[in-house]
Design goal:
Layout (H helix, E strand, L loop, with lengths): L2 H11 L3 E5 L5 H13 L15 E5 L10 H4 L1 E5 L6 E5 H7 L3 H10 L6 H5 L2 E3 L7 H4 L2 E5 L14 H6 L14
Parallel strand pairs: 1-2, 1-6, 2-5
Antiparallel strand pairs: 3-4
Helix pairs in contact: 2-5
GO molecular function: mRNA binding; structural constituent of ribosome
InterPro entries: Ribosomal_uL13, Ribosomal_uL13_bac-type, Ribosomal_uL13_sf
Protein name: 39S ribosomal protein L13, mitochondrial
């Protein structure tokens, strides 16, 4: 085999590291996108029995956003295998205990229930903030684009740009906002 072919084969089967910022993202809509890179579905050599997936680093999982009132209504089930060991945990309770768990469960449930699912999940690295070890950041070569743009807050905009925003209502000087 020529050196060129060996290089192509190495590049094809090499594991690439991707990074995904979960700030203001819905984990259940982001999960299929993360799954695509974890399992290697975007690669031309993909086969369900071929382990060709990549590593994915998810940062800022503490700042995820669920739609509507899912924080109060989404329930996670756990059973200890003992009699009467069933527990149901609301999303906001689970998120306050472990901020990475909701993203992990969303990605896990989006994958098909095959034998490689648990081994594929070992390549998913979730961090509650953007403090990622340097050893992992050195390997990252791709950033996965967010599904939803993060809106800019008014206090993040400089005063000069705030002054240029057109005002709809000009309040009198003695008016008190309540």
């Amino acid at each position: 085999m020529s050196l060129l072919r060996k290089g192509q084969q190495w590049g094809t089967f090499a594991r690439i590291w991707h990074i995904f910022d979960a700030t203001w993202q819905d984990p259940y809509r982001s999960a299929p996108l993360i799954k695509k890179y974890l399992m290697g579905l975007y690669k031309p050599i993909y086969h369900p029995m071929n382990d060709c997936g990549d590593h994915v680093i998810v940062i800022n999982s503490k700042q995820i956003a669920l739609r509507g009132d899912e924080w109060q209504k989404r329930v996670y089930f756990h059973h200890t295998t003992y009699c009467g060991g069933a527990t149901w945990t609301l999303a906001w309770e689970l998120h306050s205990k472990d901020p990475t768990m909701i993203v992990k469960k969303a990605v896990y449930s989006s994958m098909d229930g095959n034998l490689q699912r648990r081994y594929t999940m070992q390549r998913l690295h979730i961090f509650p903030d953007d403090n990622v070890p340097k050893e992992m950041l050195e390997n990252v070569s791709n950033q996965i684009r967010q599904l939803r743009r993060v809106p800019v807050r008014l206090y993040d905009i400089p005063q000069e740009q705030q002054a240029q925003i057109p005002r709809l209502i000009k309040y009198p000087a003695d008016y008190e906002l309540k």
